[in-house]
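Example S7 (structure tokens).
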């Protein structure tokens, strides 16, 4: 249970594994989906693997498939991070294909997009829709394996060694059951003095699902970043503003464009 404090300020950025405060302590608008100001966000992007602005990284990178319900996407992540990247983006299941240099991983990712039509990004709305009825781990594993078999027939770029990893299910880590989670309300921009309370039933990526007296609320934690939050009393009611959840998009296999999460 949390109560919102007086103002919202930039949270700064991560640099070489540590948090760097925002020099300007810039104010952030309540409706912003991130707690970073434009300057800090620009600096963060300048060192981002996802935006191809950090091509000199000597670490090993893995190529993976991520299952997001109606879509399977291709992506890359530093091998040392293991499953963290998949959990951050809210993948329901995943499968690693190969590992090697950063540039070869990028070439493999582009190959999967061009040859198999796999997207490199999936829209947030599509990910949330998949959680309404995620299906079974076995069905997702079968689909990932089928795509991996197609990838095995491609002329894999040099610099990546293929792996024989098995599909991994992530729904248990989120607390997401096969019945899915269907919120009827979603958190609106916060205001000073608002209280967020309820029972956490599921956490997927940056989204929290809370049971409250009037149903299930979807809470995008990006709306919390930068606020001064304090612990509320145990019996405090939920007073933050919410709105009805918009209808889910119909499943399709179209390539999507969104933030790189």
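Recovered sequence:
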């Amino acid at each position: 249970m949390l109560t919102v404090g007086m103002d919202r300020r930039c949270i700064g950025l991560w640099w070489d594994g540590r948090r760097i405060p925002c020099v300007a302590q810039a104010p952030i608008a309540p409706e912003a989906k991130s707690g970073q100001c434009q300057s800090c966000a620009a600096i963060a992007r300048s060192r981002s693997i996802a935006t191809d602005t950090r091509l000199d990284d000597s670490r090993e990178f893995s190529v993976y498939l991520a299952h997001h319900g109606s879509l399977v996407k291709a992506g890359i992540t530093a091998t040392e991070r293991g499953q963290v990247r998949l959990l951050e983006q809210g993948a329901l299941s995943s499968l690693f294909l190969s590992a090697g240099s950063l540039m070869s991983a990028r070439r493999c990712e582009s190959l999967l997009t061009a040859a198999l039509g796999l997207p490199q990004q999936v829209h947030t709305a599509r990910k949330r829709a998949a959680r309404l009825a995620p299906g079974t781990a076995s069905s997702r594993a079968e689909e990932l394996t089928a795509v991996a078999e197609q990838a095995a027939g491609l002329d894999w770029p040099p610099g990546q060694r293929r792996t024989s990893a098995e599909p991994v299910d992530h729904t248990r880590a989120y607390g997401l059951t096969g019945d899915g989670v269907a919120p009827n309300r979603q958190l609106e921009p916060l205001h000073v003095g608002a209280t967020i309370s309820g029972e956490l039933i599921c956490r997927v990526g940056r989204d929290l699902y809370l049971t409250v007296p009037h149903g299930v609320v979807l809470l995008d934690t990006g709306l919390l970043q930068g606020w001064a939050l304090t612990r509320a009393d145990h019996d405090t009611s939920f007073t933050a503003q919410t709105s009805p959840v918009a209808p889910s998009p119909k499943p399709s296999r179209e390539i999507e464009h969104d933030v790189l999460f």
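Notes on this example. Confidence is low (pLDDT under 50) at residues 251-261.
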